Amino acid sequence: MRILVKGGTIVTASEEFQGDVLVEGETIRAVGQHLDLPADQVIDAAGKYVLPGGVDQHTHFSALCNVGDQDTAGYETTDAVVVGGTTTIVDYAPQDPKTGLLDSIDYRINVRAKDKACVDFALHGMVTEIMDSMFDEIAQFPQKGISSIKIFMAYNGSPLHVDDGTFFRILECSRKAGVTVFVHAENGEILDFLRRQCVKNGQTTPHYHYVSRPPFTEAEAVRRAIYLAGQTDTPLYIAHMTCRPALEALLQAKGTGQRVYGETCTHYLTTTKEALDNPDFNEAAKFVCSPALRDQEDCDALWAALNSGLLNAVVSDHCGIDVANLKQVGRNDFTQIPNGAPGAADRMHVIWTEGVAKGRISRQKFVEITAAQPAKINGIYPRKGHIAVGCDADLVILDPDYRGVIRLEDNPNGVDYNIYEGREQLGRVETVLLRGRVVVRDAQFVGKYGQGQFIPAKMYGSCYENRA
């Protein structure tokens, strides 16, 4: 099957030009101007932008959400993700109970995602139960195609929490294997103290979620994580950064030449902590995520950090948790509300609207932070995140003239709400190709469940390449 995408404005992280893309099978075979080549199908992209499929390197599908044995929304809900223009996710693979890292990764590939995923996926290892065997398992990540591992400095008293000694050992082992270490950086001990203090004082509404997670707890953990990584010379990637003090710590470390990098999330760029002040529990609970939402000044600082290159990517931190069901367990105690919100289906549209259409970032920067850099960081570039001969034919055709609002009913994400409901939407993904197959047409999913494939990653991703 040969498909010719013709007459669009092709945008990559490094260039922009009007041209054509020839797809043959699953691969891009030619890119140029006025391609006069035979094709089984011609897609007219005149007046539209042709972008690489988005890469969202921070998602949590089919993950235990700490309410009984219930999981977050599963891989079958990634139909909404591909409609939103993301063709590849790098999903977290938490350890299943009493199970090691490698077996949990295998189970996720062969059971959890099989016959369900609508997008291609790579995986991060994720420590959710400390075991002596994990250090040897990291050495086997290259054979599994897993180029990264995540640890949590927060959530003291839960299986998620990783103490500093274990963190240090993981850094050492990862450095030897060429694995990039991702970290959720919040001071768990102080958070635990502040949360218990709020409950003791009867301060139990969602408002106190952000009160009990002040910015300094994130900044302190960022500084500590950077220091520990520096002792092992291991590249460090700081997940979901939210605030000015944490950005200052990142900037200082980069100034010394340390290989430390960071990302932020769509909601931290566009939503402030006032969302948690809503007296309607159901509305406020939608925005309980960690780290907590911050002030408008922090949103502005994050946009600036993206433009300057201090931050490398925008991710969704997608976590599909129903309000009507799972979040109700925290109605009388905010500390019991499962953390997280859905966002993978809307990441590309929201960043285009608030970033490109409103003049905060360029189109090339958009591609860089939503596709190219996440692919490079995770060792799947240029197969993913780029438009060039030999790349996977993951293409997004976006109509910049579309005007509308974001509505859950237009692209159901598998849970009962959308945190961007009713927001202005400027521009819309009209057509998506995943490995050369049209899977979205006229902004509707026309693909097949289970079409997504596991994408093995190469070690020593881009975080290993340069200092500063």
Q: How is this structure best described in words?
A:
The protein has 468 residues and is an alpha/beta fold. It has one domain (52-381, 456-464): Metal-dependent hydrolases (TIM Barrel). The chain contains 14 helices and 18 strands. Strands 1, 2, 3, 4, 5, 15, 16, 17 and 18 form a 9-stranded mixed β-sheet that branches. A hairpin with a 2-residue loop joins strand 16 and strand 17 (437-441). The longest helix has 18 residues, at 215-232. The chain is globular, with a radius of gyration of 21 Å. The protein starts with a strand and ends in a 23-residue tail after the last strand. The model has no long low-confidence stretch (mean pLDDT 97).
Helix/strand layout:
Elements lengths: L1 E10 L4 E9 L2 E6 L8 E4 L4 E4 L1 E7 L18 H5 L2 E9 L6 H12 L7 E7 L7 H5 L2 H4 L3 E5 L11 H14 L2 E5 L3 H13 L6 H5 L3 H18 L3 E3 L5 H12 L4 E6 H5 L10 H5 L10 H13 L4 E3 L2 E2 L27 H10 L6 H15 L17 E11 L18 E11 L2 E5 L2 E2 L23
Parallel strand pairs: 1-4, 1-5, 6-7, 6-14, 7-8, 8-9, 9-10, 10-11, 11-12, 12-13
Antiparallel strand pairs: 1-2, 2-3, 5-15, 15-16, 16-17, 17-18
